[in-house]
Amino acid sequence: MENILEVKNLNIDLITEKGNKKLIDNVSFNVGKKQSYGIVGESGCGKSITALAVMQLLSFPLKTSGGEINFHSEKESVNILSLKKNEIRKIRGKEISMIFQEPMTALDPIFTIERQIIEALKFHTDLNKKDMSDMALQMLKKVGIPRAEEILKEYPHQLSGGMLQRIMIAIALICKPKLLIADEPTTALDVTIQAQILDLMNELKTSFDTSIIMITHDLGVIAETCEKVAVFYAGQIVEETDVVTLFHNTAHPYTSGLLKAVTSLGDKSKNLFTIPGMVPAGGHMPKGCRFEERCNKKMKICKDKSPELIEIADGHKCRCWLYAESGDN
Ligand SMILES: Nc1ncnc2c1ncn2[C@@H]1O[C@H](COP(=O)(O)OP(=O)(O)O)[C@@H](O)[C@H]1O
Ligand code: SF4
Ligand SMILES: [Mg+2]
User: Fold this and answer.
1) Are residues 256 and 152 part of one domain?
2) SS3 for 74?
3) Is the CB of 302 under 6 A from ligand 2?
4) Mutation test of ligand 1: which of 23, 52, 62 has the most ligand atoms closer than 8 Å to its C-beta?
5) How are the residues of the chain apportioned to helix, strand and coil, as percentages rounded to the nearest 5?
6) Going edge to edge, which strands form the sheet with 36-40?
7) Residue minimizing CA distance to atom 14 of ligand 1
8) Three-state DSSP class for 312?
9) Do 200 and 71 lie in a common domain?
10) Is 188 domain-assigned?
């Protein structure tokens, strides 16, 4: 499969008065053309800042401190990290677009829905006003908005969270991007609306031939939408494989913990399982395995030496001493 995006040894630092703290540590992954690639992990693992780096949207006190983000469009291949501001603007919103968790904060309260949808068209195309309005209307219909003509003239505060998220999807897709990054697109929505939005994204992915990076803390969302998945923990990838293997041949103890949390959701007799302990904070990483404090499979070596991400089966990578030779014991 050809790749649309290749992230190679990405590092992101937090700049502080006492020096830089590494928040993303040598993250590498590839997203195939038309593929749905999932990034999953608890809050604080570095999912959003990784996505922001792909859009070149990191700002002080965060900065990339190494690596490449190669984007392959039909026309050319570019390293996003080396693009100038005017160059990334041509790609952002056109070739790569992003949907955020909170549509209300991403939309501007003082402009109509129509104005916000055609903003990207104004910037990226030469269409006239009538054609832009027609496209906005078509797009609203595609994302399943009822009374689309009327909604175009309304303002964000007049609409529900589910409707606003559909509008965010319309805005993200209006220029037919090659890559759509969805950062927790359904987390703020209630469960039925969540399912509708995920169905909609699956449908649109097929009709637009878009690649998707789906970011979520919820393995249930990954199961519904993704083909391949990377599990993030404390700024690193700890497991990467296809979605079937992740669920049926889970390797990393952290992934097993996340899975337990999903399966107990449907079982009301049990308390919701959460992995005990917390994700270590950026800049305060333990010397050994970053999951060691919380791991129920830990061994002696885990505290002393950090495991590498290695291929444990064809296309299945894992960062854990259970699957690696330590070299010295
Ligand atoms: N603007 C910021 N300033 C300082 N630290 C930040 C900022 N944004 C994110 N971080 C830190 O970076 C780490 C990763 O954050 P984030 O990517 O938002 O996690 P996730 O999306 O997985 O919940 C966290 O430790 C978070 O506190
Ligand atoms: S390396 Fe050790 S502590 Fe880390 S996940 Fe594997 S078994 Fe657990
Ligand atoms: Mg996030």
Assistant:
1) no
2) coil
3) yes
4) 23
5) 35, 25, 40
6) 96-99, 179-183, 211-216, 36-40, 228-233, 236-242, 316-318, 310-313
7) 46
8) strand
9) yes
10) yes
* Binding site membership of 27 for ligand 1 (Cβ less than 6 Å): no
Cα 37 to ligand 3 centre (Å): 16
Which of 158, 176, 194 is a domain's end point?
Answer: 176
Question: Would you give per-residue pLDDT tens digits along the chain (329 residues)?
Answer: 899 999 999 999 999 999 999 999 999 999 999 999 999 999 999 999 999 999 999 999 999 999 999 999 888 899 999 999 999 999 999 999 999 888 888 899 999 999 999 999 999 999 999 999 999 999 999 999 999 999 999 999 999 999 999 999 999 999 999 999 999 999 888 888 889 999 999 998 988 899 999 999 999 999 999 999 999 999 999 999 999 999 999 999 999 999 988 765 555 555 567 888 988 887 778 999 999 999 999 999 999 999 999 999 999 999 999 999 865 54
Question: Does the beta carbon of 143 lie inside 6 Å of ligand 1?
Answer: no
Looking at ligand 2, which atom is closest to the CA of residue 302?
2
Mutate to test the pocket of ligand 2, among 295, 306, 318 (most ligand atoms within 8 A of CB): 295
Label residue 247 left, alpha or beta by phi (over 0 means left) and psi (-120 to 50 means alpha): alpha
| Residues measured by CB to lie within 5 Å of ligand 3, the ion | 47-48
Q: Quick check: CB of 43 below 6 Å from ligand 1?
A: yes
Give CA–CA dist 171/117, Å, rounded: 5
Tell whether 190 and 76 lie within a shared domain.
Answer: yes
